[in-house]
Design a protein that fits this description.
The chain is built from one helix and 34 strands. The protein is mostly beta strands. The chain folds into two domains: 334 residues, 5 Propeller (Tachylectin-2, Chain A); 120 residues, Jelly Rolls (Sandwich), CATH 2.60.120.560. A six-stranded antiparallel sheet has the order 23-34-25-30-31-32, with no helix packed on it. It has a six-stranded antiparallel sheet with strand order 24-33-26-27-28-29, with no helix packed on it. It has a five-stranded mixed sheet with strand order 4-3-2-1-20, with helices on one face. The protein is globular, with a radius of gyration of 22 Å. Bound molecules: beta-D-fructofuranose.
């Protein structure tokens, strides 16, 4: 379909749907959400010319997955965002079924996107092209077409290029499925972002000492953090166990060391990045002052997403807050980006046994707690956060079945930081040792009630609204 046609369709969808979406009481006050339609992965996250640019997988035409566009926002401070012109629409034959996920780099002052052109055929098969686009001085993106065809030995599931520069050369990791239906991460190198040479598989199912580890790996991101190499990746096909891998698909990381001469990545075991109900496909970038920032999709691609009530108002999903990453041993700690403190309004403080604390507004709020003993935070009778001797448990009723469902972190919770925004909470345990992110859909003006005999010290801030301009 022509680009003009797609853009007209997208504009019509926004014009006719944005008021209804904006009036939804589940719409976040300060998280990023699509104006209309379905959003999934964050893409093209970069600090460029004094601004953060953040694109996103977007179907503006329906609350459904499908031929994705790239929407675009930018921000000076990670808090106040503005809409930017749509970055990519799936208008060309090599991206007929979607401009899929990818990343942005600064190539001598030219912002350059590498993304996947997804093409599906009538027989149900597909192929993928890794494509390049550049942004001009006016902010317009120009597509240069495919720079890499499907590598031999893999199915049509090869996608999500994450590109970075090292010693004057460009490197790219891709998520892939091999012909034996094993998930892999592929590495390529280029002098100019156009000519790519394969350097082989750096991680995957049945590699580096891993056993069977999923049929497809999506959205890889390889970076240095505090002296180690970290591979963030989303393996699909891990069987759920009692305490881990409970969501339909996982999102986590391997910590180790990557050698630019041998192209070997030695790593230890896989750890999930977030133990809540909704988290997937994160992407990182470096801040101006060298912090590694991560933003994820507060969603999971599975059937249950279509039971979320916002669909009736024509929009679906939000991103997580931006998080700063640090490494402690071989574990990633996540902290809400310090810029978010700008959102803080009035502060109230409380202390005492949980059951004596007053109910608190959690429409748009931050809670900082020290905890000793068992207690439960009940968010509007829709989502419960329990701290107990085994760890922390999140509980809610499944939107599809109505049955209770839980997610757990095991360990000793001493502090909690909970960021609340209309229809989501992000729980940071023990200064970022673990995170649990979840959507929930309360009636307007949700409150948190405290139960239990555990002792709590609590600071509560209301967070100001921060609309996208
Ligand atoms: C992850 C993902 C990516 C793909 C994109 C399509 O959520 O499946 O692998 O590029 O979404 O929207």
């Amino acid at each position: 379909m022509s680009e003009a046609h797609l853009l007209k369709q997208a504009l019509r969808a926004v014009l006719s749907g944005q008021q209804r979406a904006a009036a939804d009481h589940h719409r976040p006050a300060w998280h990023l959400a699509p104006p209309v339609g379905l959003m999934n992965d964050p893409n093209g996250f970069i600090h460029f010319n004094h601004r953060y640019v953040l694109c996103y997988q977007w179907n503006p035409l329906a609350c459904a997955h499908g031929a994705k566009f790239w929407g675009q926002w930018s921000s000076e401070d990670l808090v106040n965002w503005r809409h930017e012109p749509l970055a990519l629409a799936p208008s060309e034959p090599y991206e007929s079924h979607g401009c899929y996920s990818g990343s942005a780099v600064d190539n001598q002052g030219v912002m350059t996107l590498l993304y996947t052109g997804n093409v599906k055929f009538d027989d149900g098969s597909r192929t993928a092209w890794q494509c390049l686009a550049t942004r001009d001085e006016q902010g317009e993106f120009h597509k240069h077409g495919p720079v890499l065809a499907l590598p031999e030995g893999y199915t049509g599931h090869v996608r999500d290029p994450k590109v970075w520069q090292h010693d004057g050369l460009w490197y790219m990791v891709l998520g892939a499925q091999d012909q034996a239906l094993q998930g892999k991460v592929l590495l390529f190198r280029s002098p100019d972002l156009h000519q790519w040479t394969s350097l082989g598989e750096i991680a995957g199912s049945h590699l580096n000492g891993l056993g069977e580890f999923g049929y497809m790996w999506e959205c890889p991101d390889l970076f240095e953090l505090d002296g180690s190499s970290v591979l963030v990746v989303c393996p699909q096909g891990l069987a759920a166990e009692e305490w881990r891998w409970r969501n339909t698909f996982q999102s986590g990381y391997f910590c180790g060391s990557f050698d630019y001469h041998s192209h070997q990545f030695r790593h230890d075991e896989f750890h999930e990045l977030d133990l809540g109900f909704e988290f997937y496909a994160p992407q990182t970038c470096l801040s101006a002052d060298g912090r590694r920032l991560l933003i994820g999709w507060m969603g999971i691609p599975d059937g249950d997403e279509f039971f979320q009530p916002t669909q009736a108002n024509g929009w679906m999903h939000t991103l997580t807050c931006p998080r700063e990453l640090t490494l402690c041993g071989n574990r990633i700690f996540q902290h809400p980006a310090r810029e978010l403190q700008q959102l803080r309004g009035q502060l109230s403080q409380f202390a005492g046994s949980a059951q004596t604390l007053p109910a608190l507004a959690v429409d748009s709020a931050e809670l900082e707690l020290t905890v000793s003993g068992a207690c439960e935070l009940d968010f509007a009778e829709e989502l419960q956060l329990a701290v107990h001797s085994q760890g922390v448990t999140l509980r809610r009723n499944n939107l599809r079945t109505g049955e209770p469902e839980t997610r757990d972190w095991r360990g000793e919770a001493r502090t909690l930081r909970v960021l609340c925004d209309r229809s989501s909470i992000e729980v940071f345990i023990n200064d970022g040792e673990a995170v649990m992110s979840s959507r929930y859909f309360p009636a307007p003006a949700p409150q948190c009630h405290f139960h239990g005999t555990g002792q709590i010290g609590l600071r509560h801030w209301s967070l100001r609204q921060c609309v996208v301009e």
